[in-house]
Amino acid sequence: MNPTIQRRRLLLATTGALLLPGARAQAFDHTHAAWTALLRKHVQPLRGGQASQVRYAGMAADRAALKAYLDSLSAVGESSFAAFGRAQQMAFLINAYNAFTVELILTRWPKLESIKDLGSLLQSPWKPKWVPLLGGKVSLDDIEHAMLRQRGRYDDPRVHFAVNCASIGCPALREEAFDAARLDAQLDEQALRFMSDRTRNRYDAAAGRLQVSKIFDWFGEDFRLGHRGIASLPAFLARYAEVLADAPADRERIRSGQAGIGFLDYDWKLNDAGR
Question: Whole-prediction pTM value?
Answer without folding.
Answer: 0.89
